[in-house]
Specification:
By secondary structure, this protein is an alpha+beta fold. About 25% of the residues lie in helices and about 25% in strands. It is built from 7 helices and 13 strands. The longest helix has 15 residues.
Length: about 270
């Protein structure tokens, strides 16, 4: 079972979550992490309680780096919130959710809130590597982070300008010529690796493309014909246009083990 969302899965999820725009943030909770969870998860397991105009409560769980999901039922929460959760309560109390979006085709979710004093604050949920959740002000300065991190090309801690990792190819925004150029410029030794890594589609959705295009996944990008490149691009556009049709994959005990936003070759090969 994979333990992180693919970029295309986050893109579908954001579309499903946009009905939360305009909701009011009632409270921020820290979710129970369980005895097996490490201290590194502290502050990265949050639940936002939101109220729509009709007063109905909705719950958005953010578990960095593994998942984001919407629930109509309040999950179990920790009795005592940590310092990061308390900070979010202070800055985002009674704030209005203005928008939910994905940063390009990155595994980064951004929730923009209008605070009580009229500021626009961003709650950034990073769903890659170790994961993180941050609050960023209007000027892009980090107010707080669940985990302070220092990387080769960026520092994630209060007082620093928030800088996401170097952007990967935004596969959803590519025209056919740009797509073909991206595939042909890949230094990977196979089509599947070029699609999964350089275009950021992940293995499952790279498989969808080369299967639909009837292309040998082991073929080098430079061996692709013009017709094969066009077929791959057409398969990508069809994949991005699919309407959500969630599929749950069950384990040996018939418990949910994995989920997909729509039927895939991987889901068809598993028990659903």
């Amino acid at each position: 079972m994979k333990n992180q969302l693919a970029a295309i899965e986050l893109k579908v999820l954001v579309g499903e979550l946009r009905h939360l725009d305009g909701s009011w943030l009632d409270q921020v909770y820290e979710l129970e992490s369980g005895s097996a969870a490490s201290a590194a998860a502290k502050g990265k397991r949050l639940m936002l309680q939101l109220s729509a105009s009709e007063g109905k409560k909705r719950f958005l769980a953010c578990l960095a780096p593994s998942a984001v999901f919407f629930s109509s039922i309040k999950p179990s929460t920790a009795e005592k919130p940590g310092s990061f959760c308390s900070m979010l309560r202070h800055h985002l109390g009674n704030a209005k959710l203005v928008s939910i979006s994905q940063l390009g085709s990155e595994r980064i979710l951004e929730l923009v809130f209008s605070s009580r004093n009229g500021q626009q604050l961003r709650l950034v949920v990073e769903l890659f590597s170790k994961g993180n959740i941050l609050l960023v002000d209007e000027k892009g300065v980090i107010i707080g982070a669940a985990e302070h991190q220092i990387w080769k090309d960026r520092t994630v801690r209060p007082g620093f300008i928030y800088s996401p990792p170097p952007a990967t190819t935004d596969f959803a925004a590519l025209g056919e010529e740009q797509f073909q150029k991206a595939v042909l410029s890949s230094e990977k030794d196979s089509v599947v690796k070029a699609l999964a890594v350089d275009l950021g589609l992940s293995g499952v959705y790279a498989e969808e493309l080369y299967t639909a295009a009837k292309i040998d996944k082991a073929k080098s990008p430079l061996q692709l014909s013009q017709a094969e490149l066009s077929s791959l691009f057409s398969s990508l556009r069809q994949l991005l246009s699919r309407k959500p049709q969630p599929i749950a994959v069950l384990d040996g005990s018939s418990s949910p083990a994995e989920a997909f936003p729509f039927p895939t070759a991987a889901s068809a090969a598993a028990k659903t």
